Amino acid sequence: MCAVIGDPIEHTLSPTMHNAAFEHLKLDFVFVAFRVAPDELEKAVRGACALGIRGLNVTMPHKNAVTEFLDEADPAVKFLGAANTILNQGGRLRGFNTDGVGALKALRCNGVNLTGKKVLLLGAGGAAKAIAFSLAKEVEELCILNRDAVKARELANVLEPCGKRICGNELSPRQIQKELSDSDLLINATSVGMTPNVSESWVKSDWLKPELFVMDIVYNPVETKLIQDAKAAGAKVINGVEMLLYQGAASFEIWTGCKAPVDVMRNALLSRLSSAGAYV
Ligand code: ATR
User: Fold this and answer.
1) Is 170 helix (H, G, I), strand (E, B) or coil?
2) Residues 205 and 225 sit within 8 Å (Cβ to Cβ)
3) Which of 176, 208, 263, 265 has its Cα between 20 and 30 A from that of 149?
């Protein structure tokens, strides 16, 4: 058994994606969701371990607090102070954060080569941090813009030892337009554009150009305003389902040791999102 723990948890897509993959590969696994209140987190994790649950996905609000209960943490967990995946290896709890590697894989599998490129990243929250941590080692230049500029600058500072050109600044129309003019890839890692605020985007459509790759981590709606505008401008787009998919695929591989059937998982996600009305 594998499970996702969070609070709230009703809208999680993890069981859909993982059960489709388990069935497709005929693995003797099942994936369930548990709502765990913050003050029950330790008991839930220790209980999952005692029950021999093979793996956990950890979502809001537990990603940070759960790191206290790990026996081992991968470098991303150590840097971020947050884990989204736990492997129970014979009673030893190993923590991983697959958000960053998932984003990187989503980019690569959709034709993005990051070497020598400049990336403009919007956001400096949990997801943005994980993406920045993975990107910093790969790209030539990374510019992080956040509504709270202090968070953007702090993130840029801690990533500086990577030796690449990394800067942090305020999220403003002027900064976006300036930084976008020589960027190769734009990533929205804020929650802007998410249902119900589907008409929101910080990026004006006439700043977008065909040479640009645009990735949004918002997956509900599947086509955000930013993705629609980028498409209309002729840019190449990667929607939020891809990041969700590849972070899940990375967790799946940690738990099972099997290569994740990403097409099966994507179809399961898209049909579930479609029946939930996530297409606008
Ligand atoms: P997650 O774990 O999904 O990244 P989070 O850590 O709460 O969630 O981060 C949300 C991100 O979206 C932050 O970068 C936040 O900006 P602030 O740090 O300034 O709060 C950003 N965000 C949320 N609403 C926003 C808005 N209306 N305009 C711009 N940025 C917004």
Assistant:
1) strand
2) no
3) 208
Assigned token pair, 9: 């948890």
Contact yes or no for 93/58 (Cβ under 8 A): no
Q: Are 152 and 159 in contact (CB under 8 A)?
A: no
How long is the chain? Answer: 280
Dihedral sign from CA coordinates of 173, 176, 177, 178: positive
Query: Ligand 1 centre and the CA of 152: distance in Å?
Result: 11
**48 Cα–ligand 1 center, Å:** 31
Angle made by CA atoms 119, 120, 121, in degrees to the nearest 5 = 110
Q: pLDDT at position 278, please?
A: 84
Backbone Cα Rg of the chain: 19
Q: What is the pLDDT of residue 277?
A: 86
Look at the pTM and tell me if it is higher than 0.90.
yes
Candidates 105, 160, 153, 155; CA nearest to 126 is 155
Q: Tens digits of per-residue pLDDT, 222-255?
A: 999 999 999 999 999 999 999 999 999 999 999 9
Q: Would the CB of 146 count as within 6 Å of ligand 1?
A: yes
3-state secondary structure of 267: helix
63 included as an active-site residue: yes
Q: Return the percentage of the chain with pLDDT > 70, whole number.
A: 100
Q: Catalytic one among 26, 43, 63, 231?
A: 63
